[in-house]
Specification:
The complex is a heterodimer.
Chain A (H helix, E strand, L loop, with lengths): L6 E10 L2 E11 L2 E6 L6 H8 L7 E6 L7 H9 L1 E4 L11 H11 L5 H14 L15 H13 L5 E5 L7 H14 L4 E6 L2 H7 L2 E6 L2 E6 L1 H7 L4 E4 L6 E6 L5 E5 L6 E2 L4 H9 L1 H9 L1
Parallel strand pairs in A: 3-7, 3-8, 5-6, 6-7
Antiparallel strand pairs in A: 1-2, 1-4, 8-9, 10-12, 10-13, 11-12
Chain B lengths: L11 H25 L2 H17 L5 H27 L1 H4 L3 H5 L5 H10 L2 H21 L9 H24 L5 H17 L26 H20 L7 H20 L3
Helix pairs in contact in B: 1-3, 1-6, 2-3, 3-8, 6-8, 7-8, 8-10, 10-11
The chains are: A alpha/beta, B mainly alpha.
Chain lengths: 290, 269
């Protein structure tokens, strides 16, 4: 793997005061969807802000699309080829959906009015907001706003797409549509998305990176990640004390994840089981929170 | 052998600057529309005209003078307020993160906002021309009611006030800052109006009839230069709100400040 990859990070770190948010993160991502999993406070958003050139890393090597974001001219070249969906995208009051996208398109240096409007209409159609493009944003539902935020990231068909929890707040149907859209968008470009939804990762990603406390816990394919949990998930009528994590399922039995005792009723692990095994104790707080 | 390069072919950095200029112009048009069509601007200005119109009934010389004075004083303040809200809208809406990741830099965005101040100025210039035409048609009723120089200062007042609204959004990132600046301007005008020379340094020196501000005999042309200087200084202040690459802005600001001081001195009687 070389720094010419869409994303090349080697030992990237970022701190706020004395608090390290990202510590020695490494990743190489090419075309396709790379999923970033981790509990709350793991440093995912800070990391994605570094990848989106919003934050400058404190240490390590970061190359995006073969360029150095630490150099102003190269950073600007990166931004020309970048689409970014923040975790909590805000919208200025008074804009309609179309006007907002037109505004962002200008910021993305699309000067010619006609072709810019064509591009705005294209992304509006891509996220399925044609019928509400003339409405002010405050009149749109949360799901529609989320799709609008994704639409701005898709403007100009960027080579690198950074999506911070794109499916949060969406209902199951919207999530499926989102997956379909992201799956389509991943062809011929690199997408880095962070999520708490392990099913999204299983459905979309060719590569998954698990981070916890700012460090990489796993980087590889979702299938390999699941394979690591083989033999470590079992069902029992009780919460097994040897399990790292256990929860009561719908049929009244407990799904235990950890080091299985001899003779345990082993079941096929899911990517969620594998994730819980990787993040260990941090997973407990996540499981409690959810 | 030296290769002959076409003199008219722009160097890559010139091409970049030209592209930047086109982006800034496109953005300026959008920002100008946002400022001029801002609900607070439209609503408050409409209310102002309505109240002023009701307050002095009848199309008399006094009512027209009162209305024009009110407009000359308050419309620039409304413009300051609207520009401040537009310039701070991304911050207030938590939308800055999206903007930061775009290739157009923050300073270029602020420059577009500053240039957008030309839109309300252009509108007021249209109003001034309409007033001249009306004054010409009305004859003695309006002749000399409001000095032409006072009317002509309106576009400059709007440029400066709008740019000041943008600068306030850059430097005073707290709710209500625009209102404090507006109050400061009014207090400045009120205090300086009592001083025969000091009144010339107020942005509204010419915006009153002789009844309020007894016949300052200085140079109206230099006063226009002074107002223009203040407007550009407000833009410089707005542009300095962003870190990095401040040197050319500071140099420009220093030159403009010197010219403004010169115009301020030259305008005095």
């Amino acid at each position: 793997m070389t720094p010419q990859a869409a994303v090349y990070a080697d030992g990237v770190s970022k701190s706020f005061g004395r608090t390290p948010a990202v510590a020695g993160f490494s990743l190489t991502a090419e075309d396709g969807v790379t999923g970033l999993l981790g509990p709350n406070g793991a440093g995912k958003t800070t990391l994605l802000r570094c990848l989106a050139t919003v934050h400058a890393p404190d240490g390590g090597t970061l190359r995006l699309l073969g360029r150095d974001p630490g150099i102003a001219e190269q950073r600007r070249e990166i931004r020309r080829r970048l689409g970014y969906l923040p975790q909590e995208p805000g919208f200025q009051r008074g804009f309609t959906a179309f006007e907002f996208l037109d505004y962002i398109a200008i910021l993305k240096e699309m000067v010619d009015r006609r072709s810019r409007h064509d591009e705005v209409r294209r992304v509006i159609a891509e996220v399925g907001l044609e019928t509400v493009s003339g409405k002010t944003i405050r009149k749109l539902s949360g799901g529609m706003r989320r799709r609008l935020a994704l639409a701005q990231a898709l403007l100009g068909s960027p080579e690198l797409l950074i999506l911070d929890e794109p499916t949060v707040g969406l209902d199951p149907e919207q999530r499926l549509r989102f997956r379909e859209l992201i799956g389509r968008s991943g062809e011929g470009r690199a997408i880095i998305l962070s999520t708490h939804q392990t099913e999204d990762v299983a459905a979309l990603c060719s590569q998954v990176v698990v981070i916890s406390e700012g460090r990489t816990r796993y980087a590889g394919s979702p299938a390999e990640m699941v394979a690591r949990a083989a033999g470590r998930v079992w069902l029992d009528t009780r919460r097994d004390p040897s399990a790292a994590v256990a929860w009561r399922t719908g049929d009244g039995r407990y799904r235990n994840v950890g080091d299985a005792p001899a003779g345990a009723d082993l079941v096929e692990p899911s990517i969620e089981d594998a994730y819980l095994l990787l993040v260990g104790d941090r997973a407990l707080s996540l499981a409690d929170a959810s | 052998m030296t290769a002959v390069v076409g003199a008219r072919v722009a160097a890559p950095d010139q091409v970049g600057r030209l592209a930047d200029a086109r982006v800034v112009v496109s953005l300026t048009l959008v920002e100008a529309r946002r400022v001029v069509a801002h609900p607070s601007y439209l609503a408050l200005t409409g209310l102002l005209v309505l109240v002023a119109g009701i307050d002095v009934p009848g199309l008399t010389r006094e009512s027209i003078v009162g209305l024009l004075e009110t407009i000359l004083l308050f419309v620039p303040l409304m413009s300051l307020f609207a520009a401040n809200l537009v310039a701070s809208s991304a911050r207030r809406a938590n939308a800055e993160e999206t903007l930061v990741a775009s290739p157009l830099g923050a300073r270029a965005r602020i420059l577009a906002l500053c240039l957008a101040s030309l839109a309300p100025a252009a509108l007021s210039a249209t109003g001034v021309v309409a007033y001249w035409w009306l004054a010409y048609r009305a004859g003695p009723v309006l002749d000399g009611a409001v000095p032409m120089s006072a009317m002509a200062s309106a576009p400059l007042l709007l440029v400066g006030a709008t740019a000041l609204g943008v600068a306030t959004a850059q430097w005073l990132r707290v709710p209500g800052a625009a209102l404090v600046v507006m109050a400061g301007l009014v207090v400045w005008t009120g205090i300086s109006a009592d001083h025969p020379l000091g009144s010339w340094f107020s942005p509204w020196a010419l915006a009153y009839t002789e009844a309020v501000n007894p016949a300052p005999a200085g140079s109206h042309a230099w006063h226009a230069g002074y107002l223009l200087g203040l407007s550009v200084l407000a833009m410089v202040a707005a542009l300095l709100g962003q870190r990095g690459g401040r040197r050319p802005v500071i140099v420009t600001g220093a030159v403009v400040a010197a010219l403004t001081a010169l115009a301020g001195w030259a305008q005095l009687p």
